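Researcher: Please predict.
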Amino acid sequence: MSFVICCRFMQSNPRKALEKLIGLAGGQSELARKLSEITGLKVTQPHVSQWLHRSKRLTDVRFVIAAERAVDGEVTRTELRPDLYPPAVEIPGAERARRLMEDLK
């Protein structure tokens, strides 16, 4: 059991995360190739361009985790889509509470 809460209001910038993702992947075409390879779905450079210039974020949720994998986690799913993958925040005293719960078992 995890004693973690999620905070949806922390600042993030999905567009900057997408720009970083594209750079780390080696460009739009290379990102499209990597996403296609990881997911088995057809992704093209125009898809990536549309995400960047029109949508301002990675809009197709099928590719968020694949994108994280494409750059070995250097850009996270939380950075790309904080609305879907909010950052986890540890609650003070959570470790003590976890131990108490285990003692009750």
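Model: The chain has one domain: 4-100.
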